[in-house]
Design brief:
heterodimer, A: mainly beta, four-stranded antiparallel beta sheet, B: six-stranded mixed beta sheet, about 0% helix
């Protein structure tokens, strides 16, 4: 069974640009959550999608957005990039949403974004 | 102050030693995950706990919900256990996972 796939794995952007990251969950999983990891702040929750609906959002500015498609694949977008957006962006998939998930979270390898 | 605290931040051990990593939290939670992150970034979910104790191979995780504390134990540690271990919790009434700062473990042969 294929794992969670994130693309691209690495990317470099400049300030002011925008970026779109993709996450394909494990087949059959309907929940996709996104996280930002930086050396200073550690791991932080960005948002979660379930059945094409955003269920939860973390404390990030409106420049961070996402969506989920009918095949459960999810994208996140960051507009007007700032230097501080440089981070590893991870997604995770699970069968059900949030606290109702009594099983594992399956993480992708992450997309490492560098903003110059 | 973080709502989820881990200790120690860094840990070195000799192969074969028994390892304990601690996680304490200041909010009521419904469940807690232990995660392992290797260099390069990939994260593996080790355990999800809402009560009691779970064991998988050489790994044991315990949680005491009333005392707001969880521990991850590694028996007979091995260099391949070298990684960052992160605890993460779902506070009551929210599905927003909150994370500890991680414990960096290095096991030397």
């Amino acid at each position: 069974k294929a794992g969670v796939t994130q693309t691209p794995r690495y990317l470099i952007k400049t300030r002011g640009q925008q970026v779109t990251l993709s996450c394909s969950p494990i087949s059959g999983h309907r929940s996709v959550s996104w996280y930002q990891q930086t050396p200073g702040q550690g791991l932080q929750f960005l948002f979660e999608y379930f059945s094409e609906t955003q269920r939860n959002k973390g404390n990030f500015p409106g420049r961070f957005s996402g969506r989920q498609f009918s095949n459960s694949r999810s994208e996140m977008n960051v507009s007007t990039l700032e230097l501080g957006d440089s981070a590893l962006y991870l997604c995770a998939s699970s069968l059900v949403s949030g606290r109702a998930n009594t099983g594992e979270l399956f993480f992708g390898e992450g997309s490492r974004l560098t903003v110059l | 102050k973080n709502e989820v605290e881990q200790s120690p931040q860094n840990l070195t051990a000799q192969e074969g030693e028994f390892i304990t990593i601690n996680c304490s939290y200041s909010v009521g939670i419904s469940a807690l995950h232990w995660l392992q992150q290797h260099p390069g970034g990939g994260i593996v979910s080790l355990f999800m706990l809402s009560s009691g104790k779970k064991k998988h191979g050489r790994l044991i995780a315990t949680i005491n919900i009333q005392e707001k504390h969880s521990s991850l134990h590694i028996t007979a540690s091995h260099p391949r256990d070298s990684a960052v271990y992160i605890c993460a919790a779902f506070p009551y009434n929210t599905d927003k996972l909150i994370f500890g700062t991680g414990t960096r473990l290095q096991v030397f042969p």
